[in-house]
Amino acid sequence: MSEITLDRLVTVIRECAGDSDEFDLDGDILDVTFEELGYDSLALLEISARLQEEFGATVSETEMETPRITLRLLNEAVRSDADRTDADRTDSSEVAA
Amino acid sequence: MSTATANVVTGLGVVAPNGLGTEEYWAATLAGESGIDVIKRFDPHGYPVTVAGEVLDFDAAAHLPKRLLPQTDRMTQHALVAADWALADAGLRPDATDAFRLGVLTASASGGFEFGQRELEKLWGTGPAKVSAYQSFAWFYAVNTGQISIRNGMKGHSSVFVGEQAGALDAAAHAVRLLGQDTIDAALTGGFEASVCPWGLVAQLPGGLLSEVPEPHRAYLPFDRRACGYVPGEGGAVLVVEKEDTASARGAGRVYGRIAGHASTFDPRPGSGRPPGLARAVRGALDAAGLEPGAIDVVFADAAGVPALDRAEAEALAEVFGPGGVPVTAPKTMTGRLYAGGAALDTATALLSIRDSVVPPTVGTTEPATGPALDLVLGSPREMPVRSALVIARGAGGFNSALVVQRHDA
């Protein structure tokens, strides 16, 4: 799976938590904290739930400090899920053999 | 309410089916322009009720931060915008005063029905993962008080009142009580409802009080012999009410009037043989205001539009004021009944009557029902000085509330 980028994350944020009035989310916001962007803990919970739904990977809302951190955690989680699936497949093929 | 004379109403905010903002609503109301029509927000055909008073030209995104939109029901969007308008009208800036001396007291009857319907559809249609985290509060009846408080940084004593159509009068009375106790200096108080959606409508159907007449102009005719139930509506109003001394000290401009008295009663259980509590509530409000019935210039009636309830209200009015003893009006014939918003809007309307010395009309009603005579203001507004007005509201289940508003110098 290709790397999840900021514009994918921004689409999710806009859809579920609403656009920011303070910042242009299409601008350089990678290192702006969600608090500064105006999103509270419940907004992060909502974003986390949507990311889980869309990418099948869990990022805890308590760790989502900035978009950059969120994307790093999200991509790590997606990769490790993919690795695990590969490992499972390998395991089951070995059993089958 | 012995301390009631120490309060002043300094700001109004209105969202109504026949007008957005106080002046647009008031102009439409005096002109007899109704906001009642065939339901547009969804296809009502197939439901027994097809007519409502909808707020259709309200653009929440034009007034509110974008982040608030996914987390608010329409009733909350109405409440937040009307609260902004009321604060601006009063010239009251929460950020320029002690936040802990500012309260928010709103009424709600059903909460955020449309939001709730949408999320429950997701729950049962696609599973719990799709349900918005904001469902945790957005459909809650207490949410308007909370969101107004957060948005404006008003951190003083705040409450929510649930008394169906009567709740907003109790909320206003409690705001005045808190001012009198010197708990707060100012409050936003009112009520909003926006449950015109399929779920909100069907939830009201078993009560059997909604009008099933499909012609908008004939659907809601309180005190008429053709009365056949009421039309549901959406919207409401909010008032800024302040202690007179602190309002004066901060240089508040216009004063619409004051809240002079209130009482609420509860009906006896059906079949008890005891009389309904409405007349007692009216007398209680007059007593609290220190007024004789003859001092009331106009009554804003509850006007249920249900023959037995209209009759009971007419009898209570005749008992207190004598048959035809006081002008009576029901401008809600142009909006429908707004649940928690209705009595708040009537209170705002009564204050505008005081300001402009004119009583808005009751529209639609033309053929008085049998029963005690009423001096109904029908068809066109009645110009007359208004010093004291009585607002009556009854909530389903037995709530009766009455509130007196008075000209500031009365």
From TrEMBL, chain A:
Protein name (record): Carrier domain-containing protein
Record InterPro entries: ACP-like_sf, PP-bd_ACP, Ppantetheine_attach_site
Keyword Nucleus among record annotations: no
Pfam family, one: PP-binding
Phosphoprotein as UniProt keyword: yes
Source species, domain of life: Bacteria
Keywords: Phosphopantetheine, Phosphoprotein
Domain Carrier, chain residue ranges per copy: 3-82
Species annotation: Streptomyces caatingaensis
From TrEMBL, chain B:
Domain of life: Bacteria
Protein biosynthesis listed as a keyword: no
A matching Pfam family: ketoacyl-synt
Domain Ketosynthase family 3 (KS3): 4-407
SUPFAM superfamilies referenced in this protein's UniProt entry, alphabetically: Thiolase-like
Tagged with keyword Cell inner membrane: no
Cited InterPro entries: Beta-ketoacyl_synthase, Ketoacyl_synth_C, Ketoacyl_synth_N, PKS_Beta-ketoAc_synthase_dom, Thiolase-like
Molecular function GO terms recorded: 3-oxoacyl-[acyl-carrier-protein] synthase activity
TM segment ranges: none
One GO process term, biological-process aspect: fatty acid biosynthetic process
Keywords: Acyltransferase, Transferase
The family this protein is said to belong to: Belongs to the thiolase-like superfamily. Beta-ketoacyl-ACP synthases family.
Protein name (record): Beta-ketoacyl synthase
